[in-house]
């Protein structure tokens, strides 16, 4: 492989984007990804239960934390479902 290429964009010299890419092993199996999806779904349900417990106790800070984590897991779950090619799942970026 040769030296990294440089490109000029809007008057600025930039190095090849591949220089900034992390090393990837691509060694996850479909079973690994499905197991991660199941874990994410269980964790999301735990945060939902925690939100409801906090609501019942009047713990607004706990409710915020639970809602934030529950929402974050929605993105994780959609990404894993998209990765697995689940029918009906659009791009996780939309």
Q: Tags for this entry?
A:
94 residues; single chain; two-stranded antiparallel ribbon
Would you kindly provide a written description of the structure presented here, covering whatever features stand out?
- With 94 residues, this protein is mainly alpha-helical.
- The chain has a domain at 28-83.
- Helices cover 55% and strands 9% of the residues.
- The chain has a two-stranded antiparallel ribbon.
- The mean pLDDT is 88.
- Largest sheet, if any? 2 strands, antiparallel
Give the mean pLDDT.
88
Q: DSSP strand (E) fraction?
A: 5-15%
Number of helices: 2
Tell me how many strands there are.
2
The main sheet orders its strands as 1-2
Helices and strands: which structural class?
Answer: mainly alpha
Give the distance, in angstroms, between the N- and C-terminal Cα atoms.
36 Å
**Envelope shape:** elongated
Please sum up the structure shown:
This protein has 94 residues and is mostly helical. The chain is built from 2 helices and 2 strands, in the order ββαα.
Topology of this structure?
Elements (H helix, E strand, L loop, with lengths): L5 E4 L2 E4 L14 H28 L2 H24 L11
Antiparallel strand pairs: 1-2
Helix pairs in contact: 1-2
């Amino acid at each position: 492989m040769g030296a990294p290429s440089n490109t000029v964009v809007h008057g600025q010299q930039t190095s090849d984007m591949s220089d900034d890419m992390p090393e990837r092993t691509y060694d996850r199996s479909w079973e690994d990804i499905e197991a991660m999806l199941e874990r994410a779904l269980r964790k999301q349900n735990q945060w939902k239960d925690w939100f409801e417990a906090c609501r019942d106790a009047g713990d607004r800070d706990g409710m915020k934390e639970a809602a934030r984590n529950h929402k974050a897991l929605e993105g994780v779950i959609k990404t894993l479902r998209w990765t697995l090619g689940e029918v009906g799942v659009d791009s996780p970026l939309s």
